[in-house]
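Private note to self, pasted from the team thread so I don't lose it. Backbone tokens:
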């Protein structure tokens, strides 16, 4: 994957880490709640948990590839530069996994920020049409092509991880065919 993907993922992660988003929303559902006998948490615990999971996933894969990687950077938005720097000499499978993780994180960050149109920029893995729409209730991308159905007759739906893996695969094919 290119540097643009990791820059976009880092930019979205920095936005998710802003104080405005870390404070709990005044209305709407929250992912984790404090007990009713205590005052509300001063932070949006769902965002804090999400950031911790994201950094932990990147750090775990980096240490798996390079045990001497050292500690992750203090600034959350620098995690993808650190990730790329320490996995640059890995074998092709590990680099492909790294690129897929970064692309999936970019899509997850965009969805968390409400930029659902990022999902529409991917073709459907089954029918290859450009008709994906984000379905928040299922936390999946749905194909709007009426002919694109599962064997059960349901409309096709895809996780962000599947879309990220498809993009990494397409990028590799384009790179091979370009020469």
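Design output:
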């Amino acid at each position: 994957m290119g540097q643009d993907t990791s820059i976009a993922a880092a930019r979205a992660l920095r936005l998710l880490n802003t104080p405005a988003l870390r404070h709990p929303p005044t209305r709407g559902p929250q992912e984790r709640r404090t007990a009713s006998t205590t005052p509300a948490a001063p932070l949006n615990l769902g965002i804090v948990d999400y950031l911790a999971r994201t950094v932990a996933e990147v750090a775990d894969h980096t240490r798996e590839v390079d045990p001497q990687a050292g500690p992750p950077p203090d600034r959350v938005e620098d995690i993808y530069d650190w990730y790329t720097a320490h996995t640059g000499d890995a074998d092709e499978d590990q680099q492909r996994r790294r690129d897929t993780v970064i692309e999936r994180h970019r899509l997850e960050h965009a969805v968390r920020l409400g930029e659902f149109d990022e999902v529409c920029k991917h073709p459907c893995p089954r029918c290859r049409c450009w008709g994906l729409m984000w379905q928040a209730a299922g936390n999946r991308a749905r194909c709007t092509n009426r002919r694109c159905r599962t064997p059960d007759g349901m409309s096709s739906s895809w996780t962000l991880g599947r879309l990220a893996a498809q993009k990494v695969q397409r990028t590799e094919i384009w790179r091979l065919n370009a020469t």
